[in-house]
Design brief:
The complex is a heterodimer of chains A (about 475) and B (about 240). Chain A is of the alpha/beta class and about 475 residues long. In chain A, about 60% of the residues lie in helices and about 10% in strands. About 5% of the residues of chain A have low confidence. Classes of the chains: A alpha/beta (about 475), B alpha/beta (about 240).
């Protein structure tokens, strides 16, 4: 009887999640039609097309174009800065309606997406460290390393010539990391889109253009998933044509890239290091709050799952033990990052529904931590001498009462140090979810660094984790000491 | 019919049969001591009586309840069977008094106030009235076992089972526990005691049961079993322990 109750509980729990996911996808569909707010995915940072200004607002050519076109064509949209790869996958699995991220129109991408008319012409150029005068041509790259951004034309181009010129490639998730790698000397050069590099150099990213020749000239386009949202594509094209006609397009582009004659763009704010950190703190604190929120919510669900499966693991029913063992084995056996990608992109892609990122990330964190909490609870309960249960049962107490009033109060004391450990692990693990685009402390750090190109922000981020975890550990230690005494 | 009636009891762990066709009974108010070498199955037999061990075959009837029948509410029957363990098994997170009052209040046999009064009375009976608010960790082994006896008595059972109650005690503490048990016997409690204390068995038991190899080899009045044992294995066992 007890075992079946556990199974019911676990089933109810799964149902709860299913209903949650169902509800959320329902609200998404309900918004379709008149006055729909389009979800537009973009890169976290691809200056000058999309990046956050010092106050945390998304700006750039793509952002201003989108804004002007939406105004011109009278539709509503919401920007989702997911990172380029996550955005591509989100568009493929219909998590978003459109994508604008300085994306080159390629034959291969055309198989998966429908593109707008080109809105910007670009090409690949090579940049090196500002004081590097040795690297003048591709020939000088022999035996060296080259930094590129994953999934970009720069990557493809570098890849296509790497054998000819004998260099190796290190791929990075975003441009800031690419530039840093060149600046620190790990890589001799980088390949990136001309406007990106030009803008970065204007912003004093420490690099200079090594070549002026634009390779693989390409055009950027706005994309929707193949066959989806044709009306959005039409509106984009119509709006773009209008902006080009009325001169608004030119003024947006020259705002970021300077005038066609090559003169520098309007002077941008340059801040001192300390000022920069101070300016970044609000968005970092916001990220920290989110990290803590995701930690708490995930651990809450992990705890529920741990209770259900932990008790199944110590039950007398072979079936219950088997189910719990399978659960633990699966979710301990899958790396959290893979689990996150699978839940956020894999499952929705397979079954054709959308799952909001925070839900997917929380689910992944909960399932992962739940497996560990299950083991903590099992271990705690099994560490209590069998005689305790026997003594309670011999007095006529039912299993449940004996468990709740005799075994668990003792087991909790055993479990507390492990729970504290899990709390710290889960808090740190939330940073892994930044890889699928979840905005928490690490992602906030990435965003700040992407717009300021100030890598020392990582020190601030690291310190924030350290301080919070130290405080939590101290508080938990105090709690542990008190329960031990009691 | 006896308070405890064991008919053709068999108990196996996998292929290892530890009890082989046990038949015995304990009458109302009777004190039965079960003796025998370790591994003879005497503790297993005792633990079968309140179903801490599942019965493989046979029948055990306690207080007219067939506990080998799965339809019997074992919790109800256990309320009438107190059990004292070799390793006390006191609840370490509860005070001495709470250890005693826990079951009666939890099972709504008594109000908290009643249970408290009874608990204090029981503590007085085992000579530990001053330890009501202490925690088990601060007690000696002998004191712990006396509290355990008081805890078992709190449910007002008809039958008491003792599983080697003095085996884990330092020698100087054995007496205080046996003393409490002797009092209990003289008050007419039905008791089944697995013990290595031969002197105690001889003095207090109404009947002694000698087990070996999963069988009851010999049983009878203490004078008979200890004075003129019939069976060869009983003789060799008693030669070693006496």
């Amino acid at each position: 009887m007890k075992k079946s109750r556990f199974m019911w509980l676990s089933m109810a729990f799964l149902l709860f999640f299913a209903v949650c996911a169902g509800n959320l996808s329902q609200t998404a569909t309900a918004q379709a039609g008149e006055g729909k707010t389009y979800q537009i995915a973009t890169d976290i940072t691809f200056a000058p097309f999309e990046f956050q200004d010092i106050d945390g607002n998304y700006v750039g050519i793509d952002m201003e174009l989108m804004q002007a076109i939406a105004k011109n064509q009278n539709f509503k949209y919401e920007i989702k800065p997911l990172g380029f790869n996550a955005a591509v996958q989100a568009l493929q699995s219909n998590q978003v309606d459109g994508m604008i991220a300085g994306m080159s129109i390629t034959a291969e991408r055309k198989k998966a997406f429908d593109f707008s008319s080109p809105y910007f012409d670009s090409g690949i150029v090579m940049a090196v460290k500002k004081d590097n005068t040795d690297t003048k041509s591709y020939e000088d790259l022999r035996g060296k390393n080259v930094a590129v951004k994953i999934g970009t034309q720069g990557y493809e181009f570098a890849d296509s010539i790497k054998d000819k010129y004998g260099f190796t490639i290190t791929p990075f998730e975003d441009s800031a990391q690419v530039y840093d790698d060149v600046k620190t000397g790990n890589s001799a050069a980088c390949f990136d889109d001309y406007p990106v590099l030009a803008y970065g150099i204007q912003q004093n990213n420490g690099l200079r253009l090594a070549t002026t020749k634009k390779e693989v000239g390409s055009s950027y386009g706005f994309a929707v998933n193949k066959g989806k949202n044709p009306e959005l594509l039409e509106k984009f094209n119509a709006g773009l044509a209008n902006l080009k006609a009325n001169g608004e397009y030119d003024s947006i582009v020259s705002k970021y890239l300077g005038n066609p004659d090559g003169s520098a763009p309007a002077a941008t704010q340059t801040l001192g290091r300390w000022e920069l950190i101070q300016k970044s703190l609000p968005s970092l604190f916001e990220g920290l709050l989110k990290t803590m929120m995701y930690t708490i919510i995930s651990l809450f669900f992990a705890f529920i799952m741990g209770l259900i499966f932990g008790f199944m693991k110590v039950s007398h029913s072979k079936i219950a033990r088997g189910i719990a063992t399978v659960y633990v084995d699966i979710f301990r056996g899958i790396p959290l990052l893979v689990l996150g990608l699978f839940i956020y992109l894999g499952i929705p892609g397979m079954f054709g529904f959308t799952m909001p990122l925070p839900v997917a990330a929380t689910l992944a964190l909960s399932l992962n931590a739940g497996a560990y909490v299950t083991e903590i609870i099992r271990g705690g309960i099994q560490s209590i001498d069998r005689g305790q249960m026997e003594a309670a049962r011999s007095l006529g107490l039912p299993y449940r009462t004996a468990m709740v009033k005799v075994i668990i109060p003792q087991a909790i004391k055993v479990m507390i140090p492990s729970f504290i450990n899990q709390l710290v692990i889960t808090l740190k693990d939330t940073s892994i979810m930044s890889a699928i685009g979840l905005v928490e402390l690490t992602q906030s750090g990435k965003i700040v660094i992407a717009r300021t190109l100030a890598s020392d922000i990582w020190l601030v981020v690291a310190l924030m984790y350290l301080i919070v975890i130290t405080i939590l550990t101290k508080v938990a230690d105090a709690v542990e000491r008190r329960t031990r005494r009691g | 019919m006896g308070k405890i009636q064991v008919n053709n009891l068999k108990k196996s762990y996998g292929s290892n049969e530890v009890l082989k066709d046990i038949n015995m009974q304990v009458g109302e108010g009777e004190v039965v001591c079960v003796i025998g070498p370790s591994g003879s199955g005497k503790s297993t037999l005792l633990r079968c009586v309140n179903k801490l061990e599942e019965i493989t075959a046979g029948q055990i009837i306690v207080d007219d309840y067939d506990i080998s029948d799965n339809k019997t509410d074992i919790n109800k029957v256990r309320e009438n069977i107190g059990m004292v363990f070799q390793h006390f098994n006191l609840f370490p997170h509860m005070s001495v008094l709470k250890n005693i009052t826990f079951a009666p209040t939890e099972l709504k046999k008594q109000s908290p106030a009643e249970a408290r009064n009874l608990g204090l009375k029981l503590l007085e009976r085992v000579g530990l009235a001053d330890k009501a608010d202490a925690f088990p960790a601060s007690l000696s082994g002998g004191q712990k076992q006396r509290v355990a006896i008081a805890r078992a008595l709190a449910m007002n059972p008809d039958v008491m089972l003792f599983d080697e109650p003095t085996s884990a005690l330092d020698p100087e503490m054995v007496g205080e526990v046996l003393g409490v048990m002797k009092d209990l016997a003289s008050e007419g409690m039905t008791m089944m005691i697995v013990t290595h204390e031969m002197g105690f068995a001889r003095e207090v038991a109404d009947r002694v049961v000698f087990m070996d190899g999963g069988y009851i080899v010999e049983e009878g009045e203490p004078e008979q079993v200890f004075g003129s044992p019939k069976h060869e294995r009983t003789i060799s066992f008693l030669e070693k322990v006496l």
